[in-house]
Amino acid sequence: EETLVLHRPIEPEGELVGNSWIEDIADKGPGKPVMIRNRRTLSTLSGLLVAEMTELWVVRGAGGFGGPRDLPGDPLPTVPDRQADCVIDLPTARNQALLYRLSGDRNPLHADPELAKSVGFDGPILHGLSTMGVIGRALTHKCADGDPHQLRSMRQRFTAPVVPGDVIATEIWDEGDGSARFRASVPARGVVVVDCGVATFASA
Fold this sequence. Notes:
Shape: globular
Mean pLDDT: 95
Strand order of the largest sheet: 2-3-4-1-6-9-8-7-5
Number of helices: 3
Number of strands: 9
Order of helices and strands: EEEEEHHHEEEE
Largest sheet: 9 strands, antiparallel
Structural class: mainly beta
Low-confidence stretches: none
Distance between the termini: 25 Å
Helix content: 10-25%
Strand content: 35-45%
Radius of gyration: 18 Å
């Protein structure tokens, strides 16, 4: 899962202070995953909060140390039980994971075919945050007239990886109150890649 909250626009130049800490840990049992909730903040040098991010990490096979089995907090809500107000298809490039590595995330899972196959994938997969960026673009087009400064928050669960070159179809339910619900899939492979999404905007 990934949550992003934007308190003010991020300037194209300048310095920010980042802080990161482990907020919660859950032990699913011996041989099962450990769930880790990590929290990060970005602030200006004067202390103004710019953004907050929360990630849920899954550490496979690391359970069994005896901690609590579940993370605190409410689960993400499911999408509405009705047809989406719109579906926006956006492509990803075959080299998109390689380009995204320029952000500093050099996990070889996104670039090394042999390593990706060794952990169960057919080949390199797209970074989750790159997938989130494509979905954010679709949401901004539908709910904010293309103005990214209107986006205030996004929260979603990643359910399957995107392969570079996939077309991502984002289903959007406009709630009409400055918020939207969303789900994303790759129709060509018949797989939902993001579910239980919630986004908010500065204006309805």
